[in-house]
Amino acid sequence: MDFKECGYSLANKEQMRKTSALTFQSTEKDAKKDTHFENLMTNLSNAYASDLLPFKDGKDLTECFLLQVVDILLHYIKKSFDVKSKILDFHHPHQLLEGLEGFNLELSDHPESLEQLLVDCTDTLKYGVKTGHPRFLNQLSSGLDVIGLAGEWLTATANTNMFTYEIAPVFTVMETILLKKMYEIIGWGETEGDGIFSPGGSISNLYGILIARYKQYPEIKRKGMTELPCIVLFVSEQGHYSVKKAAAILGIGTDNVIEVKCDERGKMIPAELEKNILQVKRKGQTPFCVTATAGSTVLGAFDPLQDIADICERHGLWMHVDAAWGGGLLLSRNYSHKLSGIERANSVTWNPHKLMGVPLQCSAILIREKGLLEACNQMQARYLFQPDKPYNVDFDTGDKTVQCGRHVDIFKLWLMWKAKGTSGFEAQINRYMELAKYFYKVLKKKDNFKLVFDAEPEFTNVCFWYLPPRLKHIPKGFERDQELQKIAPKIKAQMIEEGTAMISYQPCGDKVNFFRMVFSNPATRQTDVDYLIDEIERLGKDL
Amino acid sequence: MDFKECGYSLANKEQMRKTSALTFQSTEKDAKKDTHFENLMTNLSNAYASDLLPFKDGKDLTECFLLQVVDILLHYIKKSFDVKSKILDFHHPHQLLEGLEGFNLELSDHPESLEQLLVDCTDTLKYGVKTGHPRFLNQLSSGLDVIGLAGEWLTATANTNMFTYEIAPVFTVMETILLKKMYEIIGWGETEGDGIFSPGGSISNLYGILIARYKQYPEIKRKGMTELPCIVLFVSEQGHYSVKKAAAILGIGTDNVIEVKCDERGKMIPAELEKNILQVKRKGQTPFCVTATAGSTVLGAFDPLQDIADICERHGLWMHVDAAWGGGLLLSRNYSHKLSGIERANSVTWNPHKLMGVPLQCSAILIREKGLLEACNQMQARYLFQPDKPYNVDFDTGDKTVQCGRHVDIFKLWLMWKAKGTSGFEAQINRYMELAKYFYKVLKKKDNFKLVFDAEPEFTNVCFWYLPPRLKHIPKGFERDQELQKIAPKIKAQMIEEGTAMISYQPCGDKVNFFRMVFSNPATRQTDVDYLIDEIERLGKDL
Q1: Do A445 and A376 belong to one domain?
Q2: What is the number of helices (H) and of strands (E) in chain B?
Q3: Which bin fits A230, alpha (ψ -120 to 50), beta or left (φ > 0)?
Q4: DSSP conformation class of A257
Q5: What is d(CA B213, CA B228) in angstroms, rounded to the nearest whole number?
Q6: Across the interface, do B129 and A167 touch by the CB < 8 Å criterion?
Q7: CA–CA gap between residue B160 and residue B92 (Å, rounded)
Q8: A154 to chain B: nearest residue by CA?
Q9: I need a labelling partner for B230 at 20 to 30 A (CA). Which of A228, A449, B51, B307 fits?
Q10: Which residue of chain A comes nearest to B74, CA vs CA?
């Protein structure tokens, strides 16, 4: 059987029901084949998972079922990229829990037919959010890369685990190659560099701080922290919350994370860092690590890495750079200078699933000193990491991680790199930077929009308020803020209700709710930027 | 365009090259359509990722490319289930690094053609390990579930993030439903239960211990562990190494994990646990948590949960049950009694990606007391978890986790549950238990095989040595052990070399390398069991 036999389009439930009612028009001459195919189609309504492979006669049905799933997915992909389609069809949690037009999420003791499963797949996508839509601008990770998607489909099919070369030979070698590529791009020397892919930037940041602690106090691994002095780390007040989270988990405590003041652009002020370090020392506590941010979440700020590296060197502190968001910029010759000094870091978090557009999840923790990662985490489980294997067991990565089993996050990145080359990533990222500049220029000209920081954007984040006419003439101050605070949530709620666009908002420090525009979606065009501005005005002007 | 236009089979590189050289025989009448299709085919060798969506004319090419990827995957799936195909085509790491017959893993600055990417996909699978093969018995997670696979393909296409209901409305509600189902199965009351899906059992165990610590010392979150007494946890000597790993990460220290002695079956001895607790208290240290194991990794042992629960109650200790491997057995009415007492646990790790056969990764941490998970982990990041959203923000799960972004691991499990019903999982698991009993009975009759523990298996693990004729008559003791230690690795190396089967081995305590057979692969049949025994004899008899 090939695609021809199973080939028809299942755009929606109605169409599917029609199809399974045998309205399919075959162009094949072979009557026998036709009958076989028609039987499979009829069977879907009374065929079950147990009829699929590994059931011995399940080969054709398996192929037929999977091709129909793929047809649903292809239809969804095309719709995702279609600017005229809605981003979402919003429903409240209680509506989904109660069930919607035959979409029942409850689970039963008994199996459902394969036909019902296809309907469920269609409905799952129908009530979800099209994160690949050109006007989905809600997160740092957005867009749908077709090559990355193909990579994920293959990864799911291979269904293996990164812990040993034994069962993931190709993927573990790909990881080695990609990590090396990333060390080189950071600017580390040939003999430096170690790392691993982890389940997201928060875990990568946790790794950085864990290794920093291990480097200074290796005995903690065995003895714990009880007998230690109070150790302290530093991050800017605009740094990601995962740094505090890591401190809580590691037993360091959030009180021992000092938030260093930022300038008005959101960059850590080096003099403030040094002042904080000296204060901590004076209190008899022990500084051990600074987390600098390269591309902050809300404002897109880059901390001054060279200055921070100087301070870390002066005080003997580990320098971790959280470049989860900004790391991708290293691939652009025009903009990589913004991360100048990253080569002096002891560890770096870099999420290819953000700026580089790799499907979720794909995050790397990179450590400059070889051997630390393994020394810190290894437990030498003999049932997995036998020394008497027939290959070079250095490729068994499982003893370097905080996990045991580890999802294969590498193949999609590898395939995308093959597909685009470094130059393809560069072109894509440069385009985001141009879009951000364009957006800034347009906003600047409009007197009902106000920029949170009025200068050409440093990164692809552009933060701004929309001021409805009735607020424009209230002078800046508490009264206006009270009202302005409510504007972004109201516009966003309406956008979601209508499904026209998605953009995030938040308060920050003393600034009330503002929108954060961010470019990392390859489908977004200048026309979508123009649309978004018009849409905000349309939804906000009478608020 | 539908499947017919793009429909042809790409079994291997040669075939693909032929196809792209336009040897495809269309049965379509429409000459225009034919030309369009043929153009796309020709184009693959000089088409690039940048020609795919979101490029404005990329729709047909995108569909064509993805369908060809799917064709490669379908071919692989059918081969995986074919007992006559090799499980792997073994090569050493240096061979993969150097490149194999046109499979070059190095990355370049420039893009490769779509045709080359398809070749790379084929090669990636060719040099990998078929974990769905009926004779892949190497890990606790094995097999390829077709419904789960379809679920993963959809998940990848939806490419979203679990942290907010806002961008994952269907998936977050599905998680709520599945967690509730799991609390019910564990036997917790209606008002109890909280939980989250995490990136694997090690992280789930870390959650259990983290929450246990938080419950007793909530101030650690802020203040860290420095001012605390030395806190101690307990796990059996057969428990998973992730418990020690978690202690190292959390700043508790591996020295403060007491390994409790087991009986000869690998079960924790309750009297030993109590003795250890009293010893620790006498030393002035503070016990806070016991991790019991339900289904140990190597021997498949179940700790006596009721007895352990009694001891935990008596001493006021948190009881965590690591049921990563054994949890699935709760779905079998015949065997769930082996986990009797799990309803008294404070937290449970349960990995549907193991016994239940869900594709990697899918692991849950379940906590009996509501609210603790969020209280322990929340950081209230205002850019993600805005309180002024237009829906019930209880469904934003991101503040419960140790992560920020979180992969969607729920849909494949939800779809499999719909597809099989609870009864389908039960039947599958019962079959594994029967296979284990069968395997045990066959081995028992053979005098060149020796069981590590000679009694009917408790779970699907069956551990055994193969004794080549020359060792059979050496008396038990150091000399025989020295030789026996080398047998399993040699047989395994030969199996890998020939690609006929995969089964793990390890030493354990004072026992030298033995094989661990384990049943969790739905494709494995009794004939594969017979084959494996013959294969071990064939490869081992002259060693």
Answers
A1: no
A2: 18, 12
A3: beta
A4: E
A5: 11
A6: yes
A7: 36
A8: B73
A9: B307
A10: A63
